[in-house]
Write a structure and sequence with these properties.
heterodimer; A: 504 residues; Aldehyde Dehydrogenase, Chain A, domain 1; 6-stranded mixed sheet; 16 helices; globular; B: 304 residues; alpha/beta; TIM Barrel; 8-stranded parallel sheet
Chain lengths: 504, 304
């Protein structure tokens, strides 16, 4: 047993009263003054054309991209039509055949290293734009998204001329033109995960950003220009679902790498059935974060917070299902409530912000719909009492208790800052519950006992299992899913394999 | 003999601490960006929480009196800076400190219980504390028997702190765990809880004589123990990191740690202290920088 709930609640640190109350009373004590990251050094165009064949190419249509924290328009981005996609693919094909396939692996490495170094020089600019366009806290874009993106380029640059050591005794060739479609939750990072290994393996690329977050990819296009990568080796376009479909269906695209929803992943699989296209899909998740009674509890609380509120919960591997051992459930819930009080929600560009804006109006609607389904199905909602800005898209960090495996909030991916808390009694029950989902992307295990970690990690069907930590990424470590979370691995040596075609 | 039946409450606490996680959390809080008004408020708050310390064999009446002057009025020419919380000295120097501080609101704290090693019989320690209190110390900073704790003799530790607490009477008791010798965070957490169960008014990291002294992660672990103890009992115990806190940036990180782990109720000299000596001048220097926009030479700040 750990600490008990006392009935007399007057002196307790936890929030009193109604579980759903959003008390408006001003917090006492020492408040941190606003500490906004400066935006003077940002260079943004008013309008972004398509980056095809090393040129900035005009499109017929443009769409606005807005700052989700203010709802203000930041810039216009080109909407690539079918013929633009065709242009991009053909330019990638030409670049592959005429130039890139003739460049030695050592030279390829130099280009990738150069991209990484130029990105380092512009790291702050990338971070600020990522936060403006997507709503994520500057703390995260500066501390995680941008450095990790750069690390991926450095890592795969190193592999470019060592591929025969990655796959000794095997014969292989690049795939050719690869089509890549990335999501809005980690735009730059997902681009790096996809472009870096593709280039290292000698492919050329057509990549499409997500509708709400085109800007950092176009900044990356500027870096690629500056690095003097041969024209057409990387083509960067923006648009909507139909643009992505045009990439997937183009006959010259030999491999598709997609990160996004399971729903779209299924459409992609259907549309390439019967072709010889290679494909990797990194889709949704509903990860179990499992806390045992012998866990380091205060650190586990941080792991829960990091697992579900990191990037507003817009994380495919988010620890969105908390499985907590029954004996410590009250302790964990109480500590979690207390911890939510110091979670700062607000301006993504403030250096002290922990949770930023929801990426889009559409996503906010989806989160609200799922949360009200939870309330309707009788689950108990608890929300942070933070003050939210008036404009922009926001959702309070939230969690549900009294959740059953069969509730929608326990089965469907919410992709927002909403946690569903369930309990278990034995390790076996924890494994059963953790695996009882159509997803299998990630999981977390919290216990002080090493043997339990190994046993659980072996039995949980998830691509990544973190122990006594959560949401840790490294370019050398492969990432990918089981079941409807997709297939194929990105990162590490495994990530190279997906961009090569092997002749046994 | 004092029966430590209360130590059975130890069972209701869990003791696993993950070192990597604790360090990560402390680093994350330390990266808070404190600017403008909140920085000025933090500097003043930090000054008011300092236990201005001198613990050297060569300390003399004159040295202590000079230190007391600084404690009462840290920055000449202005009343904007509050006095520090206390002056912390060896027992022989209580009298001059008491004399110099009388009527100022600055407390006199004395180390005791065979500081810094704690290696003498309990009886002698109690005698020493009795004497220290009789000399007029408002606060007693005792050291625990780390040897006994590391042997697994939790009961001894409990009885020792309890005995000293009973001897203290009105004087406030700060219990120094010497976390540098306890090594693991599990040990720090356990010793913190035992000290609180035995009646500590404050728990304190270090003597300043052992490295590492206060660190942010070890302070975080102790603050979390204080929070859990409070949730169990409703009694507020104070915290004092001591040793190695030299810069304004360090001090502000500690304040953020308290603010986010325990909340505003603890952000007062009554429940939070910084055991330091050179920190004060850095705070004053940063204060003047905030006020005037430029750094002043160190020569403008007195060395006492």
């Amino acid at each position: 047993m750990t600490f008990k709930e006392k009935s007399a609640s007057g002196k307790k640190l936890s929030l009193n009263g109604d579980e759903r109350s959003h008390s408006t009373q001003k917090k006492q004590g020492w408040e941190y003054s606003a500490s906004p990251e400066s935006t003077d050094h940002i260079q943004l165009r008013k309008k972004y054309d398509l980056f095809i064949g090393g040129q900035w190419v005009k499109a017929a249509k443009y769409f606005p991209t807005i700052n989700p924290a203010t709802e203000e328009k930041i810039a216009l981005a080109a909407f690539a039509s079918n013929s633009d996609v065709n242009k991009a693919v053909l330019s990638a094909k030409r670049a592959y055949e005429k130039v890139w396939s003739k460049v030695s692996p050592k030279e390829r490495a130099k280009y990738i290293f150069r991209i990484a170094r130029i990105m380092q020089e512009k790291a702050r600019e990338f971070a600020v734009i990522e936060s403006m366009d997507g709503g994520k806290p500057i703390k995260e874009s500066k501390g995680i998204d941008v450095p990790l993106s750069i690390a991926h380029f450095f890592y795969y640059a190193g592999w470019a001329d060592k591929l025969q050591f990655a796959f000794p005794g095997k014969k292989f060739l690049p795939v050719g033109v690869v089509g890549q479609i990335i999501p809005w939750n980690f735009p730059l990072l997902m681009a790096a995960w996809k472009i870096a290994p593709a280039l290292a393996c000698g492919n050329t690329v057509v990549i499409k950003s997500a509708e709400t977050t085109p800007l950092t990819l176009y900044k990356l296009a500027e870096v690629i220009e500056e690095a003097e990568l041969p024209a057409g080796v990387v083509n960067i376009i923006s648009g909507a679902g139909e643009t992505g479909a045009a990439i997937v269906n183009h006959p010259e695209v030999k491999k598709i790498a997609f990160t996004g929803s399971t729903e779209v992943g299924k459409i992609i699989l259907r549309s390439i059935a019967g072709t010889d296209k290679k494909v990797t899909l990194e889709l949704g998740g509903k990860a179990a974060n499992i806390i045992f009674e012998d866990a380091p509890i205060d650190q586990a609380i941080e792991g829960i917070i990091n697992g579900i509120y990191f990037n507003q919960g817009h994380v495919c591997c988010a620890g969105s299902r908390l499985l907590v051992q029954e004996s410590i459930k009250d302790t964990v819930v109480k500590k979690l409530k207390y911890r939510l009080r110091s979670l700062k929600v607000g301006d993504p560009l403030d250096k002290n912000t922990d949770v930023g804006a929801i990426n889009s109006k559409e996503q906010l609607k989806k989160i609200k719909e799922l949360v009200s389904s939870g309330v309707d199905e009788g689950c108990t909602l608890y929300q942070s009492d933070c003050t939210l800005p008036e404009r922009g898209f926001w959702f309070r960090p939230s969690f549900f208790t009294n959740v059953a495996q069969s509730n929608r909030i326990a089965r469907e991916e919410i992709f927002g800052p909403v946690l569903s808390i369930m309990t278990f009694r034995t390790p076996k029950e924890a494994i059963e519950k953790a695996n009882n989902t159509q997803y299998g992307l990630s999981a977390g295990i919290w216990t002080d006992k090493g043997s339990k970690i190994f046993k659980m990690a072996g039995d949980i069907k998830a691509g990544v299992v973190w122990s006594n930590t959560f949401n840790k990424f490294n370019p050398a470590s492969p990432f990918g899913g089981y079941k409807e979370s997709g297939f194929g691995r990105e990162g590490g040596l495994h990530g190279l394999k997906e961009y090569l075609s092997f002749n046994e | 003999m004092i029966l430590s039946t209360e130590l059975k409450h130890l069972e209701s606490y869990h003791f696993a601490v993950d070192e990597i996680g604790a360090k990560e959390r402390a680093a994350s809080i330390a990266s808070r960006s404190i600017k403008g008004k909140s920085k000025i408020a933090a500097i003043k708050m930090a000054v008011s929480m300092i236990d201005l310390t001198t613990l050297e064999g060569k300390d003399s009446d004159g040295k202590v009196k000079a230190l007391c002057r600084k404690a009462i009025r840290p920055l000449d020419g202005t009343d904007e800076i509050p006095h520090v919380a206390a002056v912390c000295v060896y027992p022989n120097l209580i009298a001059p400190a008491k004399d110099a501080l009388s009527g100022s609101g600055v407390k006199v704290a004395s180390v005791a219980a065979s500081f810094p090693s704690g290696q003498s019989p309990l009886k002698l320690k109690v005698e020493e504390v009795k004497k220290v209190v009789a000399l007029g110390a408002d606060e007693v900073d005792m050291v625990i028997s780390r040897g006994a704790f590391l042997e697994g003799n939790h009961d001894y530790l409990f009885r020792e702190v309890r005995a000293v607490k009973e001897t203290c009477g009105e004087a406030h008791l700060k219990v120094i765990l010497e976390t540098g010798e306890l090594e693991t965070f599990d040990n720090v957490r356990k010793a913190s809880i035992i000290a609180m169960l035995a009646g500590a008014d404050f728990i304190k990291t270090s003597t300043g004589k052992v490295q590492p002294a206060a660190t942010l992660p070890v302070t975080l672990v102790m603050l979390e123990a204080i929070r859990d103890y409070y949730n169990e009992t409703g009694r507020i115990v104070g915290m004092k990191p001591a040793g190695g806190i030299r810069t304004t940036k360090d001090a502000i990180s500690y304040l953020c740690l308290v603010n986010e782990t325990l909340g505003a109720a603890w952000l007062t000299p009554q429940f939070f202290r910084l055991g330091a000596s050179t920190l004060l001048n850095d705070l004053l220097m940063q204060y003047m920088k905030q006020k005037t926009g430029v750094y002043q030479s160190a020569e403008y700040f007195t060395n006492d």
